[in-house]
TrEMBL record:
It comes from Pseudaquabacterium rugosum. Keywords: Heme, Iron, Metal-binding. Coiled coil: none annotated. This is Cytochrome c. Residues 27-106 form the Cytochrome c domain. The lineage of its organism: Bacteria, Pseudomonadati, Pseudomonadota, Betaproteobacteria, Burkholderiales. InterPro entries: Cyt_c-like_dom, Cyt_c-like_dom_sf. It comes from the Bacteria. The keyword Metal-binding applies. The keyword Iron applies.
């Protein structure tokens, strides 16, 4: 069954992410997943973004704005053990894609943490 779910929309009316069958995603969202993996965010937030030492991003992104997300990733929360990624070129160059991937997980549109490109 093919189901296309562009659920979150940015201000320009361009979908924040596009998901098919719960795990096939557009190229930008795929870049976000690859950035997640490269930055090893799963060490603290868990392989399924459900939290470990760090909080669940599935829950956090339900209430956190994109601006708050960017600030947290860029500056870290050193008092809580969250490192800063502000000097990571890969993370900062792909922050919008990373947000799209994690927001899709939080919204429930992306139903598993490991995604594949839409073909």
């Amino acid at each position: 069954m093919l189901s296309l779910l562009p659920t979150a929309v940015q201000a320009q009316d361009k979908p924040l992410y596009t998901v098919v069958d719960g795990y096939k995603v557009d190229a930008d969202t795929m870049t976000g997943f690859r950035t997640w993996r490269a930055a090893a965010c799963d060490r603290c937030h868990g392989a399924n973004q459900e939290g470990m030492v760090g909080p669940s991003l599935i829950s956090s992104l339900k209430a956190m704005s994109k601006d708050e997300f960017v600030k947290t990733v860029r500056d870290g929360r050193l008092d809580k053990g969250m490192q800063s990624f502000g000097t990571s070129k890969q993370v900062m160059d792909n922050i919008d894609s990373l947000y799209a991937y994690l927001k899709g997980r939080s919204d429930g549109a992306i139903t598993r943490s490991k995604v594949e490109p839409i073909r």
